[in-house]
Amino acid sequence: MRESPILEVIAALNGEGVKVVVHDPAITPETPLAGQLAYVRHGSAGLKSLAADLPSMLRGDCSAVVEAADALIVTHANDLYRDAVANSGATPVIDLVRLKREAASRPNYNGIGW
User: What is the pLDDT of residues 48-61, one digit of tens each?
Assistant: First the structure.
């Protein structure tokens, strides 16, 4: 999530009133966010409006995000997120990084950009 293009997607969803929760293994709710928020505040108009909401969107536990999600957007390929998707049941998944080749055959699984 750090200075990632996914922040624009999060900002757009947030701007439309969609409740967004995020997980990044490198950023927890306890992580000082001054640098991240400085980047966000100096970005697009959508990013500027996201700066105030971003800290409350962060979750330290990936499984809590999966349990609460109506849909998952995956932007990092790692074992934590592979496991999360494997345990997501029928929750729709939008995979931007091709976590697993065989997962693409699931009816609720959508790959974008690969």
Answer: 777 788 888 889 89
Distances (CA, A) of 89 to 27, 51, 83, 84, 100: 26, 32, 11, 10, 15
Q: Supply the pLDDT for residue 34.
A: 64
- How far apart are the C-alpha atoms of 106 and 46, rounded to whole Å? 33
> Beta-strand (E) ranges in the chain?
72-74, 93-95, 109-111
Calpha distance 83→36 (Å, rounded): 27
Residue 50 and residue 11: Cα distance in Å, rounded?
Answer: 5
Q: Is 17 left (phi over 0), alpha (psi -120 to 50) or beta?
A: left
